[in-house]
From TrEMBL:
Pfam families: AAA_19, UvrD_C_2
GO molecular function terms attached to this record: ATP binding; DNA helicase activity
Keyword Hydrolase found: yes
Annotated keywords: ATP-binding, Helicase, Hydrolase, Nucleotide-binding
Organism superkingdom: Archaea
Listed InterPro entries: AAA+_ATPase, Coronavir_polyprotein_1ab, P-loop_NTPase, UvrD-like_helicase_C
Matching CDD domains: SF1_C_RecD
PANTHER family: DNA HELICASE B, DNA2/NAM7 HELICASE FAMILY MEMBER
Protein name from the UniProt record: UvrD-like helicase C-terminal domain/AAA domain
Chain ranges of the AAA+ ATPase domain: 621-819
SUPFAM superfamilies: P-loop containing nucleoside triphosphate hydrolases (SSF52540)
Organism of origin: Candidatus Nitrososphaera evergladensis SR1
C-alpha cells in the first residue's frame, strides 16, 4: 500500500463545504498555480459567489445550478453530500466548446462529505517527445487500477497541500503542507459519454490517437475523526490584525509554523496534483506537523490550546498507523527485486516476488523470524524454489537492505555502491549511502520505479526508529560521529540553498536540535564539547573545512569541502586575473580623453569627468576590473564603449554574459546601434544558455568548418569519435551541479579542462545576481591563461543572488583588503537625476554605509518633486484610483478599464513599450502583493488573457528545437521575461522572438504561446499577468515610471529590497503607502535598513568577514583588531589609537534613542571626544543628511566635543594632520570653525 498527496485550491473558509468568505479576495484560488488553474479561471462566477459567500455549496446548486469549480477540494471538512454536474474539460476550449456542450453530456456524480477529488496527471500523458499525447486506453486503465489499488482503506494517509498560489509560501514558489486525513474509501473514475463520431474526430488529430473517454478524477473519502487542517488561517488573521512593526514580528512567528515542502526528494511527490508517497516520506511529513505544533505551543495561545491538542491527537494516531504499516522491513519486495531481476523475466518478476513473500510469511510467521532463522526454506513451485535459493545466498544483504524504504531503482543503485566499497563498510556506516549515491533522476507515476534521490531522514528511520510507535530496535547510535557528520552535511547543503556557504558551530548545534525527526534530537543532546571531540577525528576532517577564528574573537565555522572547492576555484580565477596588468598606450589615453569628452557633452554637469577617466584607465590597465554603481550611473554606457575599444584593439573574441534573459536583452539593445550584435567575434549570452548550448555549437561548427573559429576555440579540444558523448556528459554534470548535486563537482572540474573556451575579454553584467556555484561553473569553461580582461559589472548594494554566497560583494571586499582599489570603482555620479532629486536622496540613504536616522528618511519623503510622489491608500479601490491618476499623468490613456489604460500607455508608439510603467511590490502574495494587484486591481477580478495584456514568465521554459537536423533541449524563455498580447491576439515575448529567429519552428515554442491563449486547459500556467511584479523580478531592469506599493511592514522589506526598488526608476517613482503605515513610515524604513540580506549571509570566499562592508583592518595597540569601512577610517583610527587613551569604533551611545553612529569615540586626559569623517560633502544629498545628523549631535550635547574631518584636494600627510588634532586637544586649542561641517572642522 501507499499513501497519497492531494492538491487543494486555497480556500479562505478552510475547505468546509461552503463558498469562500471573500471570493474576490481569495485570488489564490484562481491564480496560475492553484488546482487545475485554467479550468477554475474559465468557470468561476465571482459575482454569484460574492452573493452567496460563506453559504453551503448546496445553496449555489439550488439557486443557480452552480458548483464552484474548486469543488475537488472544497468539501474536505464538509459534512454534507452534493450532486456534481461537471462538463468535460474540452468544453472550455473555444474551438470545441459548442460540440462538447451539445454532444457530450456533463459528468454526473456526488461529492461526498469529508471527501476530495484528485488525479495523478502523470498517469494519462505520454512521455516527453512521444508521438502520442496520451497513453493507450488499455494502458491508462491498467495504471489507474494499480494507482487506486495502492490506496488502502484505514491504512493510507492523504496529505493535503497547496501549490505556489497560497498566502504562506507563495513568495518562495514552494508547496505548503496543509493537513492530512486517513482514507476511508475511494471511488474510481467514471466514463464520459462521448459520441463515436466526435471521438473519431478527436482521435484523428495530431498526437490525439489515444484520446481518453475516462474522466481524469477519482474521489477519496476521508475519515472525519482522523482528518485535520493546520490552523494557518488563524495565524494569518492574527498577523493581519497587527499594524506596523508589530505585524513584522508576527510574520516571523507565522513563518516558524508554516510547513513548506523543501526536501528535494519529497518535492516530486507534490507534482501532478496527486502522487503516491512511500512509508518513510509519509512519516517524515507527519513529524513536520508535530514540529510545527510544538512551535505553536511555544508561541502561546494564538490558537486555542484545545485545538492544538486535538490536531496533535490525530497526528499521533496517524503516526501509529504509519509506523505499523511501515514495519521493520518496508523495502523487502523492492530490494528483492534488485536481487532477482536478472533471474526472472520482467513481466513475471512482480508476481514471483509477491508469491515468495506470501510463502515466507506462511512458513515463518514474519520476516523478522525468517531472517533470524537458520533453517533453509524449500518450495515445490519452481519459481519460488529458484527465488529462495538466490535469497539464501544473499540473505544477510537482503535483511540489511529491507530495513530501508527505497524504490527498485534505488536498491539497484545501492547494490552497485555495495559492490564497489563492500557490504561490511556500508553496514557499519549506512550513512555513507548519502555521500556515495549519485542518481540521474527517474520520474514515474509508479514511485517504486522512480528515483528522486535518498535523504538523511530515510536512513535515520531505518536505523533509529521512534520507539513511541515502533516495536523494534537496531544497534545504531544517534550520537555516532558517522551520523552527526551526515546531519551536519545536510544542514550545510540546506543553508547553501538559502545563501550561506558556511555556518558557525553554534548555528550547527541549533540546526541539529531543529531536525524534523526531533524524537532523535530530544535524546541526542549534542553540545559544543561533543562537536569539539568529533572535529579532531578524520571522519570530520575529510568532509568539512573547520575554520577557527576564535583567536581573533570570531566564531568557529563549518563548511562543506565541496563548497570550499567552489570558493577555491573562484579565488584562483580572480587572483590569476588580478595579477595581469596591461600598459596604457598613448593611443589608449587619447581614446579615453575623447570618449570622456563625448560623454561630458551628452550628460553635462551630472557626469564626473575624473571618475570616468579613472574608470576607463583602470579597466584597460587591469586584468580584473570590477565596475559597480547604481542604475543610472553610466555602467552600461561604459561597457558598450569598452567593447568597442577592445574590438578596435583586436582583443577578440569577446564574451558578454548575463544571469537573466531580461539583462541579456538590455545589453543587446545597447550594443545593437553600434553594430556589435552582428559581429561574430562578440557573443552575448545568458550564462545558462552558454553552459548548456555552447559546447554543442562549438563542436558542430568545428565539424562543419573543420577549423577553429574565434568563438569555438578550445584550450585542449581534439575532435574524436566520442566528443559528442563527452559533451553530453559535461552538460549532464552542469545540470546536476546547478540543481545542487555538488558531489559531482570534482568530475566536472576535471572534465571541463578539455572543453574550455579562450576569449580574450569576458564581461559579466548584473554580477550581483550570480551565486558562487553558477559563477564557478562559468569560470571552469573559460581559459584564464588566455584571458586578457575580466570585467565584472554590477551593484553590490542590490539584492543578493538566489543561491549560495555573494561573490560580487566578496570580491570587492578582497580588492579593498589587499590594497587593490585600482581594480575596482563604484560610480557615484547619477546621470539620470540632478543632485536635488528626492529619489536620488532615497537611493543614497539605502545604498549608504551607515544606518539612516528616521528624520533623514522623513525629510526625503516630506515633499513631492519631479522624481517622487507619494500616495496613500486603504483599500483596493483607493489603490486603483491612485494608479489611474498616475496613468493619466504620464500619458493620455482613454478612460475605462485600468488594464486598457495600461494598454494605451504601452502602445503609444509604433510598437509596445512595456517599460514605460511598472508596478513593483515587496511580495508576490498577501494583501496588495503582485498577485492581488494584477488580478483584483488592474484586471478587476478578470482572469482571462485578453488582447493588450502584459505578461511575465514565472519559470524558465525549456524547449526542444531543431537546428542543423538535430533536436536539443534549450532555454527558450527565461524566468522574468516580459511579453505582451498584441491587439490582434498574437503573443510576443522579445527574447522568445529573438530565439525563434535562431532556430527552426518548434512545436514547443508554439505551445508556450498557446499557454496564454484561451484554448489552454493544462494543469497550471507558468505565464502570468505582468502589470505588477516583485522587486526581485524587477532586478536587472529599469522603467520610466515605477509604482512601488508598500502595503505592510514585514520581514520581506529589507535594506537591499528598498535600494533595488528605488534604483529601478528612469523618470519618476510613484510611492503608494498603506494608510496604516503613514505615521510610522520613516521608522519602518529605518528598521528595514538594519535588516540586510547581504550581511546575513556567511561565506568564506576570500576568508571570513564579520561584515562584507568592512574590508579594512585596524589593529589597536591593545592587540584588538577592528574591521572598518574605508581606508581613511583605517588611517584615522590607527593614528588616534597611537596618541589617545581609549579608542572605540562606531560607539553605540546614541543608537537606540537617536539611531546615529559616530565614526570614532576616543579619550584624551579622561575627556571623551567624537570624530566624524565626512567623505562626500560635495554631494548635496549627503551634505543635507550631515546637517540633520549634526543637529542630533548638538541636541545630545556633544557639539563642543565633536570633530569633523574632510580630505584635502591636495597631497597631504593625513597621519600628521590627525596628530595635529590630538595636539590641539591636549593644548586645549581645538580649531573653531563656522559653516555646515561642525564647530571643530579639520581638512586632513
Amino acid at each position: 500500500m501507499k499513501h497519497v498527496t492531494v492538491r487543494f485550491a486555497w480556500h479562505d473558509n478552510k475547505w468546509n463545504g461552503r463558498i469562500c468568505v471573500d471570493p474576490t479576495g481569495n485570488f489564490y484560488c484562481r491564480d496560475n498555480y492553484s488546482l487545475i488553474s485554467p479550468r477554475i479561471q474559465k468557470r468561476i462566477n465571482l459575482d454569484l459567489e460574492g452573493r452567496l459567500k460563506e453559504r453551503p455549496v448546496s445553496d449555489a446548486l439550488k439557486s443557480a445550478n452552480y458548483i464552484p469549480p474548486c469543488y475537488w477540494s472544497i468539501n474536505a471538512l464538509g459534512e454534507k453530500d452534493y450532486p456534481i454536474t461537471d462538463p468535460h474539460p474540452f468544453q472550455d476550449l473555444k474551438r470545441m466548446s459548442e460540440k462538447f456542450s451539445k454532444q457530450a453530456p456533463p459528468l454526473k456524480s456526488t461529492l461526498r462529505h469529508n471527501s476530495v477529488f484528485t488525479w495523478c496527471f502523470k498517469l494519462g500523458f505520454g512521455e516527453d517527445r512521444s508521438e502520442q499525447l496520451y497513453v493507450p486506453t488499455s494502458e491508462l486503465k491498467k495504471r489507474v487500477d494499480v494507482y487506486t489499488g495502492e490506496i488502502s482503506k484505514e491504512k493510507s494517509i492523504a496529505f493535503f497541500y497547496a501549490n505556489y498560489s497560497n498566502p504562506l509560501t507563495g513568495d518562495d514558489y514552494r508547496y505548503v503542507l496543509l493537513g492530512a486525513g486517513l482514507v476511508e474509501g475511494l471511488e474510481k473514475p467514471i466514463e464520459y459519454s462521448i459520441p463515436q463520431s466526435l471521438l473519431q474526430e478527436l482521435r484523428s488529430g495530431d498526437r490525439m490517437q489515444n484520446f481518453p473517454t475516462s474522466s481524469w478524477q477519482f474521489q477519496i473519502n476521508l475519515k472525519p475523526e482522523t482528518t485535520f487542517i493546520m490552523p494557518y488561517h488563524e495565524y494569518l488573521r492574527w498577523t493581519e490584525d497587527a499594524q506596523g512593526t508589530q505585524r513584522s514580528e508576527r510574520w516571523k512567528k507565522l513563518e516558524e509554523i508554516v510547513i513548506p515542502i523543501n526536501e528535494g526528494n519529497v518535492i516530486p511527490h507534490f507534482k501532478y496534483v496527486s502522487m503516491h508517497v512511500n512509508h518513510d516520506k509519509a512519516i517524515f511529513l507527519l513529524y513536520l506537523f508535530k514540529r510545527s505544533l510544538r512551535k505553536m505551543k511555544e508561541h502561546g495561545e494564538i490558537v486555542p490550546y484545545s485545538e492544538m491538542e486535538k490536531i496533535e491527537f490525530v497526528v499521533d494516531r496517524l503516526l501509529n498507523i504509519a509506523w505499523k504499516e511501515r514495519s521493520k522491513y518496508p523495502g523487502f519486495e523492492n530490494s528483492l527485486h534488485s536481487i532477482l531481476k536478472t533471474d526472472f523475466a520482467p513481466e513475471k518478476l512482480k508476481d514471483t516476488i509477491s508469491a515468495v513473500r506470501s510463502f515466507i510469511l506462511k512458513k515463518t510467521g514474519s520476516l523478522d523470524k525468517f531472517f533470524s532463522s537458520t533453517t533453509r526454506l524449500t518450495a515445490e513451485e519452481p519459481a519460488i524454489a529458484k527465488a529462495l535459493r538466490e535469497i539464501e545466498v544473499n540473505k544477510e544483504l537482503l535483511r540489511f537492505l529491507s530495513i530501508f524504504d527505497f524504490s527498485t531503482i534505488q536498491f539497484s543503485n545501492v547494490k552497485e555502491i555495495i559492490n564497489k566499497i563492500g557490504f561490511q563498510t556500508i553496514k557499519k556506516n549506512p550513512y555513507l549511502l548519502l555521500e556515495k549515491y549519485h542518481f540521474d533522476g527517474e520520474d514515474s507515476w509508479n514511485i517504486d520505479e522512480a528515483d528522486y534521490g535518498i535523504n538523511l531522514y530515510q536512513i535515520d528511520m531505518a536505523l533509529i526508529p521512534d520507539l513511541d510507535y515502533a516495536d523494534w530496535e537496531t544497534p545504531y547510535s544517534a550520537q555516532s560521529p558517522e551520523r552527526i557528520r551526515a546531519v551536519i552535511t545536510k544542514i550545510l547543503y540546506d543553508v547553501a540553498r538559502e545563501g550561506s556557504s558556511c555556518l558557525t558551530r553554534e548555528e550547527i548545534i541549533g540546526s541539529i536540535k531543529n531536525y524534523p525527526l526531533f524524537y532523535i534530537a530530544d535524546e541526542l543532546n549534542i553540545d559544543v564539547d561533543k562537536l569539539i571531540e568529533y572535529e579532531k577525528q578524520p571522519i570530520f576532517k575529510e568532509k568539512f573545512v573547520i575554520k577557527d577564528e576564535s583567536f581573533q574573537g570570531g566564531p568557529v565555522l563549518y563548511q562543506l569541502k565541496q563548497l570550499r572547492t567552489v570558493e577555491d576555484a573562484l579565488e584562483q580565477f580572480f587572483k590569476k586575473m588580478m595579477t595581469k596588468k596591461h600598459t596604457l598606450s598613448s593611443s589608449d589615453q587619447s581614446w579615453i580623453d575623447n570618449i570622456v569628452r563625448l560623454e561630458k557633452q551628452g550628460a553635462g554637469d551630472k557626469l564626473n569627468s575624473n571618475e570616468r577617466q579613472v574608470l576607463y584607465r583602470n579597466a584597460l590597465e587591469n586584468g580584473l576590473f570590477i565596475l559597480s554603481g547604481k542604475a543610472g550611473s553610466g555602467k552600461t554606457t561604459a561597457v558598450v564603449n569598452l567593447i568597442q575599444r577592445f574590438r578596435e584593439l583586436g582583443n577578440t573574441p569577446i564574451f558578454v554574459f548575463t544571469p537573466t534573459g531580461k539583462a541579456n536583452i538590455v545589453i543587446r539593445d545597447r550594443l545593437k546601434p553600434h553594430g556589435l550584435t552582428d559581429d561574430n567575434r562578440i557573443k552575448i549570452l545568458t550564462i545558462h544558455r552558454f553552459l548548456y548550448s555552447a559546447i554543442f555549437d562549438a563542436i558542430r561548427n568545428y565539424q562543419t568548418q573543420n577549423k577553429y573559429s574565434s568563438y569555438n576555440r578550445y584550450n585542449e579540444y581534439r575532435p574524436n569519435s566520442n566528443i559528442g558523448q563527452q559533451a553530453s556528459m559535461m552538460v549532464d554534470l552542469i545540470s546536476k551541479i546547478l540543481s545542487g548535486k555538488l558531489e559531482v563537482l570534482d568530475d566536472f572540474m576535471e572534465m571541463s579542462k578539455g572543453f574550455r573556451f579562450s576569449p580574450q575579454v569576458v564581461i559579466i553584467d548584473e554580477a550581483s545576481m550570480i551565486d558562487e556555484v553558477l559563477l564557478s561553473a562559468l569560470f571552469a569553461m573559460i581559459n584564464a591563461d588566455n584571458l586578457k580582461h575580466l570585467i565584472v559589472v554590477g551593484d553590490e548594494k542590490q539584492l543578493p543572488p538566489i543561491g549560495a554566497g555573494r561573490p560580487f560583494v566578496d570580491t570587492i571586499f578582497q580588492l579593498k583588503r589587499t590594497g587593490m582599489e585600482s581594480n575596482y570603482i563604484r560610480l557615484e555620479s547619477n546621470l539620470r537625476f540632478d543632485t536635488t532629486a528626492r529619489i536620488g536622496f532615497l537611493a543614497e540613504i539605502f545604498g549608504g554605509n551607515k544606518s539612516p536616522h528616521p528624520h533623514e528618511i522623513a525629510d526625503a519623503l516630506a515633499k513631492n518633486d519631479s522624481t517622487l510622489e507619494i500616495h496613500y491608500f486603504s483599500s483596493d479601490h483607493e489603490l486603483k484610483e491612485s494608479v489611474r491618476k498616475v496613468l493619466n499623468s504620464i500619458g493620455k490613456p482613454k478612460a475605462g478599464a485600468l488594464s486598457d489604460m495600461f494598454g494605451d500607455i504601452y502602445e503609444d508608439s509604433s510598437k509596445p513599450v512595456l517599460d514605460r510603467i511598472q508596478i513593483i511590490t515587496p511580495r508576490r502574495v498577501g494583501s496588495f502583493g503582485s498577485m492581488f494587484i494584477n488580478t483584483n486591481v488592474v484586471k478587476e477580478g478578470a482572469q482571462e488573457f485578453s488582447p493588450r495584456t502584459k505578461l511575465i514568465c514565472e519559470e524558465n521554459k525549456y524547449v526542444y528545437v531543431k537546428k542543423d537536423g538535430r533536436y536539443k533541449r534549450v532555454l527558450a524563455l527565461a524566468n522574468g521575461s516580459v511579453g505582451y498580447i498584441m491587439p490582434d491576439g498574437s503573443v510576443s515575448f522579445e527574447d522568445l522572438d529573438d530565439f525563434q529567429r535562431d532556430f527552426e519552428w518548434s512545436y514547443d515554442i508554439e505551445n508556450i504561446k498557446r499557454e496564454v491563449r484561451d484554448d489552454y486547459i493544462g494543469i497550471e500556467r507558468t505565464i502570468n499577468f505582468g502589470y505588477a511584479i516583485t522587486v526581485h523580478k524587477a532586478q536587472g531592469s529599469d522603467y520610466e515610471h515605477v509604482i512601488l506599493v508598500i502595503p505592510e511592514m514585514s520581514p520581506f522589506i529589507m535594506r537591499e529590497l528598498l535600494y533595488t526598488a528605488f534604483t529601478r526608476i528612469r523618470t519618476k517613482l510613484h510611492l503608494m503607502i498603506h494608510n496604516s503605515l503613514k505615521d510610522e513610515l520613516a521608522l519602518i524604513f529605518a528598521k528595514a535598513y538594519e535588516n540586510s540580506s547581504v550581511e546575513q549571509r556567511r561565506t568564506l570566499l576570500f576568508g571570513h568577514k564579520s561584515s562584507p562592508y568592512r574590508p579594512y583592518l585596524l589593529t589597536l595597540k591593545n592587540g584588538m583588531t577592528i574591521e572598518v569601512r574605508n581606508k581613511i577610517e583605517q588611517i584615522i583610527g590607527r593614528t588616534l589609537d597611537n596618541f589617545c587613551e581609549r579608542l572605540e569604533y562606531e560607539p553605540r551611545d546614541f543608537l537606540q534613542e537617536y539611531r546615529v553612529l559616530p565614526d570614532f569615540k576616543f579619550e584624551i586626559d579622561g575627556i571623551a571626544y567624537y570624530l566624524e569623517h565626512l567623505g562626500h560633502m560635495d554631494n548635496r544629498s549627503y551634505r543635507n543628511r550631515w546637517i540633520q545628523k549634526l543637529g542630533i549631535y548638538e541636541k545630545v550635547g556633544i557639539g563642543d566635543n565633536l570633530i569633523t574631518t574632510t580630505e584635502s584636494d591636495q597631497a597631504s600627510d593625513t597621519e600628521q594632520n590627525i596628530f595635529q588634532i590630538v595636539s590641539d586637544i591636549k593644548a586645549n586649542s581645538l580649531k573653531v570653525t563656522s559653516g555646515s561641517h561642525s564647530k571643530h572642522h579639520y581638512v586632513i
